[in-house]
């Protein structure tokens, strides 16, 4: 075998395929396919059909696991452990680099510059060329605090104990006031208590601090200050103890408790939590009591005075990070300094990659948590664009998310460039504009959830068009412009909007209709919607942010559906509702209601085995003896939404409260999800639609949706348009930030921002009906919409 005779192919060149045999991750039904290497393969299919399970959870996950196994056991102990995916054979794998849409770290100190390592290069540049010279690269970092110390060090040397005096100091760049965050929060004390009252009279006005409760008694019975004296008359010492005292252990009413000042206690219990996951009344209190403002010492730059004083050609590192990246790239190119030549070349190439990928409008000091899913994904791509590695498998998750049709063309060119360097590119995608450039298409389906998980089609794009699969049938679908548009019932006025790159924008957003806000990536759409529309009563905003939830959370717990179901079970069986919760009294004692038992194997992947006691049902055996409509609680949680809709509509199981929530889930196209599916397994598009379903019952009159077509198949977009129309017809105002031409064509009113991105954008270039936009033309959106509707 191994030898190649003249004219024959060398055996080493015969491995041209990635072979997957018997994949069973999530909903995949024993899938076997062959994927050509060094080609661009697009995976498509309706939402929930198993694309991510095949590409990310099987191919990419196994590649990552095999690479990790090449390291020593010592190194593996520090790495995340990965289990082998459910698959019989995976052959011909190459190193996989995944570029997904997970939002970048939400840490307040994480910025575009730190995530892409551009800041690291800039810090070295300033430490070498900046005048006056202030120290090493650490002196320019807002993540390093300045510290110094001195003292005696004791050590053993030559059998004797020797003492030596040592001192050290580190010069960091962190602003001491805001600790490198750029903002400081002040607590409005007037919102915490009424200083005209004493504690005995119920002075505290914080949620959860009711007179007589433990939180309240901690202060009223601490003995540090008189409980019958109005807070306004406390001495300086008493007020200090009340508000800021360090934690101390003490007995109150015979129980050991820790007393600490009111302000640090509020900061730990409320400010440290994720704002979105708070209960509404606590969130309202935090919004009222906490004011965030730009740090007055560093003016929001996060850097202390010394770091800002060192300059190159009049520019400090703070100025450089605040520049638009396209401008910064020109500034770096103009620096001619042979001593740091290689650094300038590398920095210039990274900044050029930003511009090339369509992110030149960002600045390096932009907090990474504020980037949209699409921007985050493109930021991650920057590292790979200039890479000299070849024969790598790049795995992309909908790279066109958040991209205007004008920008999709550039993204396509990048994908083709990666392929032409000799790499295998696997893309999960719904947009026809990107599917068209594929060398090979794999269509999964035919449905979603349990109805999906099979390969319906493999082959070329041409063959897909005539294949008769759901994707093939809808491939050339085009929504037409509406003949008549609804009339506005009022307007939402925005005046002088100047968030981020908006240039003093005045606009009236019509109410009572479907308004689409569009424009190229970075033109200011999100800034206009999230920064300028007042978060008043009745405004419901649904974004694509991750849902906070453990693997114990599922659609039933998240939407509040489990509450009426538990009550219905309890009522019919005459027992208490807590028994029907796997997180409460009904939990199987062996696995604590998780359904699986985890065994940690140190540096090897932990093993999750189905709990033998409850067989993965998560409940005690005694709880499963109680039935409702002939089903036990574990069988109800295993039902898909569509089946549960019928179940809770009639007979003994009829539960109107549960039925209402299930109808909403079905309306947003999640009929295939099972009620007990862990939230951690949902895709980005599914998460957003789940949020939309929970908000549909809100009293709000104005709905703001951020790219709701993300992760939606062509066939599902029609269903979403129907849902948006129903919302408007029921008297709601719907404002959608969107690039999908079908949504634009279906709008009653379009507001187009531009003309470009960053400081070339931020202006309104068109407002009117879709038909007027196509007729007048002149903007990038108009060109693409006209081409789409075939005008």
TrEMBL record:
List residues of the ABC transporter domain. 479-780
Q: Name one Pfam family in it.
A: ABC_tran
Q: Which GO terms describe its biological process?
A: DNA repair
Query: Per UniProt, which keywords does this protein have?
Result: ATP-binding, Cytoplasm, DNA damage, DNA excision, DNA repair, DNA-binding, Excision nuclease, Nucleotide-binding, Repeat
Q: Where in the cell is it found?
A: Cytoplasm
**Would I find Phosphoprotein among this entry's keywords?**
no
Tell me if DNA repair is a UniProt keyword of this record: yes
Question: From which domain of life does this come?
Answer: Bacteria
Q: Which GO terms describe its molecular function?
A: ATP binding; ATP hydrolysis activity; DNA binding; nuclease activity
For this protein, the record's InterPro entries field holds: ABC_transporter-like_ATP-bd, P-loop_NTPase
Q: Which GO terms describe its cellular component?
A: cytoplasm
Grouped into one coarse class, the protein's main location is cytoplasm
Q: Which family does it belong to?
A: Belongs to the ABC transporter superfamily. UvrA family.
What name appears for this protein in its UniProt entry?
Answer: UvrABC system protein A
Q: What is the species listed in this Swiss-Prot or TrEMBL entry?
A: Streptomyces griseorubiginosus
């Amino acid at each position: 075998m191994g030898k190649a005779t003249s004219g024959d192919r060398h055996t080493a060149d015969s491995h041209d395929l990635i072979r997957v045999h018997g994949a069973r991750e999530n909903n995949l039904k024993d899938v076997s396919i062959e994927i050509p290497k060094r080609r661009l393969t697009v995976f498509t299919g309706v939402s929930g059909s198993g694309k991510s399970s095949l590409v990310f959870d099987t191919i990419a996950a196994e590649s990552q696991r095999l690479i990790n196994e090449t390291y020593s056991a010592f190194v593996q102990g520090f790495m995340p452990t990965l289990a082998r995916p459910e698959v019989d054979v995976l052959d011909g794998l190459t190193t996989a680099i995944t570029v997904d849409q997970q939002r970048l770290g939400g840490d307040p100190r994480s910025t575009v510059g730190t995530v892409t390592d551009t800041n690291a290069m800039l810090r070295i540049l300033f430490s070498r060329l900046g005048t006056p010279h202030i120290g090493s690269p650490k002196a320019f970092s807002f993540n390093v605090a300045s510290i110094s110390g001195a003292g005696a060090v004791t050590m053993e040397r030559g059998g004797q104990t020797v003492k030596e005096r040592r001192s050290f100091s580190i010069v960091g760049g962190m602003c001491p006031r805001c600790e490198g965050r750029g903002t400081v929060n002040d607590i409005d004390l007037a919102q915490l208590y009424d200083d005209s009252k004493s504690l005995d009279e119920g002075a505290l006005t914080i949620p959860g601090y009711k007179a007589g409760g433990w939180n309240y008694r901690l202060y009223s019975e601490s003995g540090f200050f008189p409980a019958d004296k109005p807070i306004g008359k406390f001495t300086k010492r008493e007020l200090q103890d009340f508000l800021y005292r360090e934690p101390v252990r003490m007995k109150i009413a015979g129980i050991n408790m820790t007393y600490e000042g009111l302000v640090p206690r509020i900061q730990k219990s409320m400010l440290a939590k994720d704002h979105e996951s708070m209960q509404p009344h606590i969130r309202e209190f935090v919004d009222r009591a906490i004011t965030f403002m730009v740090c007055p010492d560093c003016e929001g730059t996060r850097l202390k005075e010394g770091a800002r004083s060192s300059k190159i050609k009049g520019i400090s590192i703070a100025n450089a990070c605040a520049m638009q990246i396209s401008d910064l790239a020109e500034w770096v190119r103009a620096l001619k300094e042979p001593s740091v030549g290689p650094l300038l070349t590398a920095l210039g190439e990274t900044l050029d990659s930003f511009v090339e990928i369509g992110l030149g409008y960002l600045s390096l000091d932009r907090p990474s948590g504020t980037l949209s899913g699409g921007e985050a994904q493109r930021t991650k791509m920057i590292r790979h664009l200039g890479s000299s590695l070849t024969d790598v498998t790049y795995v992309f998750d909908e790279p066109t998310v958040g991209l205007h049709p004008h920008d999709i063309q550039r993204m396509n060119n990048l994908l083709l460039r990666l392929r032409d360097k000799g790499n295998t590119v696997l893309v999960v995608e719904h947009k026809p504009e990107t599917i068209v450039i594929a060398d090979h298409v794999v269509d999964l389906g035919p449905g979603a959830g349990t109805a999906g998980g099979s390969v319906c089609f493999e082959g070329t794009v041409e063959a897909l068009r005539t294949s008769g699969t759901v994707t093939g049938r809808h491939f050339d679908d085009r929504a037409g412009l509406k003949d008549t548009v609804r009339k506005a019932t009022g307007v939402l006025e925005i005046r002088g909007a100047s968030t981020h790159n908006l240039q003093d924008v005045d606009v009236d957003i019509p109410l009572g209709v479907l308004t689409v806000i569009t424009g190229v990536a970075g033109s200011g759409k999100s800034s206009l919607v999230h920064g300028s529309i007042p978060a008043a009563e009745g405004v419901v905003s649904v974004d694509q942010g991750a849902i906070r939830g453990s693997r114990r959370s599922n659609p039933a717990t998240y939407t509040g559906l489990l509450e009426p179901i538990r009550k219905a079970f309890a009522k019919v069986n005459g027992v208490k509702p807590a028994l029907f919760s796997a997180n409460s009294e009904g939990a199987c004692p062996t696995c604590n209601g998780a359904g699986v038992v985890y065994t940690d194997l140190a540096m090897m992947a932990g093993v999750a085995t189905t709990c033998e006691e409850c067989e993965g049902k998560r409940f005690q055996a005694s709880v499963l003896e109680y039935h409702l409509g002939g089903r036990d609680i574990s069988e109800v949680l295993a039902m898909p939404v569509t089946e549960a809709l019928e179940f809770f509509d009639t007979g003994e199981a009829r539960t109107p409260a549960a039925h209402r929530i299930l109808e909403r889930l079905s309306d947003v196209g999640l009929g295939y999800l099972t009620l007990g599916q862990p939230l951690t397994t949902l895709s980005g598009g599914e998460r957003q639609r789940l949020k939309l379903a929970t908000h549909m019952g809100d009293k709000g009159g104005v709905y703001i949706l951020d790219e709701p077509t993300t992760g939606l198949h062509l066939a599902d977009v029609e269903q979403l348009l129907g849902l948006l129309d129903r919302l408007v017809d029921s008297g709601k105002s719907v404002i959608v930030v969107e690039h999908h031409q079908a949504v634009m064509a279906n709008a009653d009113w379009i507001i187009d921002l531009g003309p470009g991105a960053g400081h070339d954008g931020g202006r309104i270039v068109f407002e009117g009906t879709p038909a007027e936009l196509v007729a007048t033309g002149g903007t990038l959106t108009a060109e693409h919409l006209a081409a789409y509707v075939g005008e």
